[in-house]
Design goal:
alpha+beta; 2 domains; three-stranded antiparallel sheet; two-stranded antiparallel ribbon; 5 strands; 39% helix
């Protein structure tokens, strides 16, 4: 059975990425099965749990509506790159899951 764990930076504790593990694969030392908090703007691993660390000011800045005319070209490019990165991360996770499921089927002789 596949399981999802959450990778974090060993030095800072900052959440890095979700990871899909195949059956019998041990959990790496930089991962935890403890689920992300909701919401999870800026989660940090504290040794026991992933906790949200965004400050009220940072959250307010993220939630402020902005007019596109007010955003300079560089900021628009950063936003576009962030959207692409988010889309790529989602595709990466879906691909990892599909590969893991296929490998599990092959190992069981089902393919």
């Amino acid at each position: 059975m596949l399981k999802q764990v959450y990778r974090y930076d060993l030095e800072s504790g900052a959440f890095v990425e979700p990871v899909i593990l195949g059956e019998g694969v041990p959990i790496p030392n930089d991962c935890t099965e403890v689920e992300l908090p909701t919401p999870n703007w800026k989660p940090i691993w504290d040794g026991e749990k992933l906790m949200e660390t965004i400050t009220p000011g940072e959250l307010e800045d993220l939630q402020k509506p902005k007019e596109l005319e007010e955003i300079d070209e560089q900021t628009q490019l950063k936003l576009a790159l962030a959207e692409v990165a988010e889309m790529q991360e989602k595709e990466k996770i879906a691909t990892q899951l599909a590969i893991a499921e296929l490998a599990e089927l092959i190992m069981k002789g089902g393919a």
